[in-house]
Please model this.
Amino acid sequence: MADTKLGLEDFARRLEAALGGNLVTLLLFGSAARGTHTAGRSDINLLLIVKDATVASLHAATPLVAEWAKGGQPAPLIFAEEEWRSCSDVFPIEIEDMRDAHRVLAGRDPFEGLTTRRGDLRVELEHEIRGKVLRLRTEYAAAAADGHALGRLLVHSAGTFFVLFRACLRLGGGAPPSDHAALVRETAAAAGLQTAAFDWVLGALAGKPPAELKPYDPIAGQYVDQMEKLADYVDGLGA
Model:
């Protein structure tokens, strides 16, 4: 990840110079901050907080953001400072996930004095898990007859679901591990899931060439079934 790191540091320096006093925070989060980044497959996720997020105030940064995006990375999430401070009830999952694994590239720590509430976390988690399971089920139906497409679906969906796994463990009062296999084990123990259903995708994420999935492969079906079971578990937490 050496080249990516150099590019990231250069981007941070140039962005800080372009925005000047308007920049509050530029933060690295996600797999690159968590230590689970896979070169060529994982994104470099950035959070940019500015004092003034109006269109006119961002013009100084747009050429740099466009250049960054053309290099194959997602553009930074952009928040106004006041907006960031008032969104803890709306995005508690994302805030706590960032808090757990981040690196401040420029500006100040955005989590100082920022708190989230368990009730807000449970509400967002229930909404997110149901929405993601509905999407997974739909995408499975479209990909089921193509083994290659099934493999891509499992790998691409895993990162999103792992965020929700971490939220489940936080909701139960635990500290989620960074390691994917440990995260699956702890979530499975809490929610009554079958850990074997995640073996294939864990192998793929670890860079171990797993067996190629076949059309209507039961490995993919078991994965979808366990995600549906997780959604039922989260629903029960609000009972």
The radius of gyration is 19 Å. The chain has two domains: 2-107, 118-237.
